Structure formats: C-alpha cells, structure tokens
C-alpha cells in the first residue's frame, strides 16, 4: 500500500483565516485499518478501564468532531472515546479511533487545550503516521501480554523484557511515533485548532502543562511508586516543542484571540475521578489495595506500579512482574500451568527448576520457578499463585535475570493479604472539585485541602498552571483534588 505523509508546513498554518468552514471534500481511511480499529476497540476500552458515557463523553466527542472536521478525513470515520484510566494518555489508531483518558483531561485548564490534544491525535491519523512506522513496530494483541513479550524476546534478552512489560498498554494498539512525527502532529493540531475558531496558543499552554506535570511526577515518583505518565513517555517533550508550538500559534495571526471556553470545560470535569478508580484498585504509596477484591500487597522500595483494568504491572531494575487473577478450579498447579502456557504461547520451552507450596498470611500458595534461554542469556520465569476462594486465584508472574528466581520480589510475594471490611470501606476516590476563590483564600490555604499527603502546594500550582508566587483573586475558579464518594 502506498503511504502518503500529509503534514502542514509552518507557511500553511500562517495562511489560515480567522475561522474557515469545515472541508467538504474528504478522503476515506483504509478499509483494512477501519475494520481493525473496530475489532480492537472493545479490547482497548477494556484494557483502559472502560469508556465513559454521559455528558462528559458527549462533550469530548463534540470537540473532537469540531477539530476533526478540518483534518481532511471523512468525519464519519472518526471516533472519539473518553477512557476511565488513571494514566495520562491520548492516542489514536490508524482506523480513525481517537482515545483520551480522564486523567489527561484533569491537567487541562480549558476547552481549547482539549481541542489541541484531540487535534494532535487526529493529525496522526490524517498523516498516516502509524502506517509509516508499522514495519518497525509490530502490533501486539490485547490478550497474552506476557506471552507476547517473552515470545518476542527469545532471541533478544532480559534487557528487552525490561521496559516492554510496563508499556503493554501503549504497545497494545498504538505505535511509537518519531520526534518529527510528533512535531508534524503538533502542526496539524494547531492548524485544526485555529481553523475551528480556538485560540492556537492553547497548543503551547497544553504542552507546558504536560511538561509541568511530568516534571512534578518525576519528583514525586520515588515516593508514590507510579510509573511515568504514558503520554509523556510516548510523546517526547522538550522546551523546543513548546517554543515551536508558540511560534506556530503566533504565525496564524490569531494567537490570543480565539475561544478558550474555560468555564464550559471546568464544568465538564467537575467531579471527574483523579488517579485510580477504586473499582479497579488503588495505589497508595508502595501498596496496591483493591476494596472490592479485598486484597492488598506491597512492592519493594524503588519499584514502580502501573494499574490497568485487570492487572497491575510492577517494574524495577531487577525484574518485572504482573499481578492478576483468573478462574480457579481447586488445583493451583493447573492454574500455574495455564499461566505458563499463556506466557509462552507454547513456543518456548521453560525448564522447571523449583516447584513448591506454602502459605502466605493464611492463603494457600503454590509456586513454580522456571528458566528459559535467550540469545543474551538466561531468564528466570516464576509464577506465585494464591487461592483466594473456590473459584478465584491470583498470581504474580515474574521475570528476572537467570539465577535470581523470585529473589528480588520475595518481600512482595509474601505481602499479599486479605483486607478487612473496614479497610475496604475506608478507600475513597479522589475527584476534581471546581472551587470559586473567596476573599482570604491563598495558594497555601487551598493547597492544604488537596487529598494528598505530600507536595500539596506543588500539586495545586501544577494542576492550575499557576506560578509559585501566584495571587488568587476572589471569583477565580480553580481545581482542587479532594476525596469523593465511590460509584
């Protein structure tokens, strides 16, 4: 298939009038990619916590279609979905499906910033960026995450496993774009933004907001054990990118004059969940707690967690692990063998070197340590399975360097426990509360209401795009993160 890169040059952006009518001549996307996107959509949505419905989802779709109408792609082939995910992410697949997480929306401050992100992702579709990169990065299926990884690195090495396991979500349905493709998508997004009547400066303010959030996350990361926001890691940020966006915005001749629609946007995100949805379990420091499943475990110091709908990925310098559950018929050995089969896909021979049983905090446990040969050396593969009830077991599947076995994760596998009804009931979600500043309110007084144990002032300033010496004005609307009620 011929691959055509469509991107807008700086000169083309300059030429845009104040507001242009949407295009009337559109091109259709490849039927193959449209079909694949339709087939993958349910699995992508499931992996990222489910799709939001209702007023906020309709609002995002409306803004997406507004900017997407200037992309040259048949509007009927563009789909905009809001995901219930705690990962700051936005991505698109070649068949015209564009996704954005509620977590990424939480760091935005107006509708124009939302429009830029949706326009940027639509730009990737319009410019066929994924097709251009596809030969260098093969798509993985949603199922069999660990199996795909191990199967792909036999002939690679432990270094390839490290890093892949923690990025399963982005590898599932998106491709890594080059820095130049990201710049091109920024140009396209700014073009769509300006032509749709928005302030093109929103591109630079959005990228600045993301840069601030990423920098703050880097400071906090060692303490809250969360992995780097996905959009930050897959969409390279730099001062040059922010500067370029600001330059392109000025060249439109409309910088600072278009729509921002801050109040309308704030109204839409009032009450939106921030960080983990308790229905999927929550990360509290180094501990993962699931109130509905009534379980908890703690990762070693220095290890990071990423929570998805049905699994928790643990990443560290000495190995990778994934925690998830499955159907249990009373035989943990059968359960473990099924995990190993899923892991290898039947393509790789694993030599079993240890097979034992024990109890952990009153839970029956069986575990297996196996060994697989790669071109770069030996990889140890371990499965630690816990019988929780007659129908369900949970397990850690771990990958470490040869000879280490479960070693780096010993404290973690021994920390799994049931939690009490009282502990479960105490877990509440964090939500965005849109607050109107009153006389006497200060950054410090409002930051003290943030539902975090640390970095309260820094989080408040970053969330609202405020400088460290900012003065609040009565009537000003700001975002707070407070404890809410479970759904």
Automatic annotation (TrEMBL):
Signal sequence, renumbered to the chain: 1-21
PROSITE patterns according to UniProt: LYSM
Cofactor entry: Zn(2+)
Gene3D superfamilies assigned to the protein according to its UniProt record, in alphabetical order: LysM domain (3.10.350.10), Metalloproteases ('zincins'), catalytic domain (3.30.2010.10)
PANTHER family, A to Z: METALLOENDOPEPTIDASE OMA1 (PTHR22726), METALLOENDOPEPTIDASE OMA1, MITOCHONDRIAL (PTHR22726:SF1)
Keywords associated with the record: Hydrolase, Metal-binding, Metalloprotease, Protease, Signal, Zinc
Protein name: Metalloprotease
Coiled coil: none
Pfam families: LysM, Peptidase_M48
Keyword Zinc: yes
Domain of life of the native organism: Bacteria
SUPFAM superfamilies: LysM domain
InterPro entries documented for this protein: LysM (IPR018392), LysM_dom_sf (IPR036779), Mito/Outer_Membr_Metalloprot (IPR051156), Peptidase_M48 (IPR001915)
Ranges of residues in domain LysM: 433-480
GO molecular function terms attached to this record: metallopeptidase activity
């Amino acid at each position: 298939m011929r691959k055509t890169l469509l991107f807008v040059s700086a000169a083309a952006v300059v030429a845009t009038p104040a507001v242009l009518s949407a295009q009337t001549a559109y091109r259709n996307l490849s039927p193959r990619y449209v079909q694949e996107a339709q087939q993958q959509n349910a699995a992508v949505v499931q992996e990222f916590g489910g799709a939001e419905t209702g007023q906020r989802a309709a609002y995002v779709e409306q803004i997406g279609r507004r900017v997407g109408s200037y992309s040259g792609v048949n509007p009927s082939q563009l789909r905009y979905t809001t995901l219930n995910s705690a990962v700051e992410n936005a991505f698109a697949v070649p068949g015209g499906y564009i996704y954005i997480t509620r977590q990424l929306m939480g760091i935005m401050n107006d509708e124009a910033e939302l429009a830029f992100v949706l326009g940027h992702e639509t730009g990737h579709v319009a410019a066929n960026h994924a097709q251009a990169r596809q030969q260098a990065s093969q798509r993985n299926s949603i199922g069999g995450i660990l199996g795909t990884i191990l199967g792909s690195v036999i002939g690679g090495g432990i270094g390839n496993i490290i890093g892949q396991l923690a990025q399963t979500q982005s590898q599932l349905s998106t491709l890594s774009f080059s820095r130049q493709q990201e710049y091109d998508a920024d140009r396209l997004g700014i073009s769509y933004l300006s032509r749709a009547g928005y302030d093109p400066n929103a591109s630079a303010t959005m990228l600045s907001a993301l840069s601030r959030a990423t920098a703050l996350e880097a400071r906090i990361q060692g303490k809250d054990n969360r992995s780097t926001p996905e959009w930050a890691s897959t969409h390279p940020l730099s001062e040059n990118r922010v500067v370029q966006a600001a330059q392109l915005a000025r060249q439109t001749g409309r910088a600072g004059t278009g729509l921002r629609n801050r109040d309308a946007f704030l109204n839409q995100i009032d009450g939106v969940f921030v960080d983990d949805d308790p229905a999927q379990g929550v990360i509290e420091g180094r501990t993962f707690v699931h109130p509905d499943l009534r379980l908890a475990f703690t990762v070693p110091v220095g290890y990071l967690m990423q929570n998805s709908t049905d699994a928790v990925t643990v990443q560290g310098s000495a190995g990778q692990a994934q925690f998830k559950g499955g159907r249990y018929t009373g035989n943990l050995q059968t359960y473990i063998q099924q995990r190993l089969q899923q892991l290898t896909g039947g393509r790789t021979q694993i030599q079993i070197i240890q097979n034992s049983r024990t109890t952990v905090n009153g839970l029956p446990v069986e575990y297996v340590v196996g060994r697989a040969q790669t071109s770069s050396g030996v990889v140890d593969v371990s499965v630690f399975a816990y019988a929780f009830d007659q129908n369900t077991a949970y397990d850690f599947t771990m990958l470490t360097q040869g000879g280490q076995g479960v070693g780096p994760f010993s404290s973690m596998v021994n920390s799994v426990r049931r939690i009490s009804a009282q502990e479960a009931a105490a877990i509440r979600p964090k939500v965005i509360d849109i607050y109107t500043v009153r006389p006497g309110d200060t950054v410090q007084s409002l930051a003290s209401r943030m539902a975090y144990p640390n970095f309260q002032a820094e989080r408040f300033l970053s969330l609202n795009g405020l400088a460290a010496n900012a003065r609040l004005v009565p009537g000003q609307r700001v975002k707070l993160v407070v404890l809410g009620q479970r759904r």
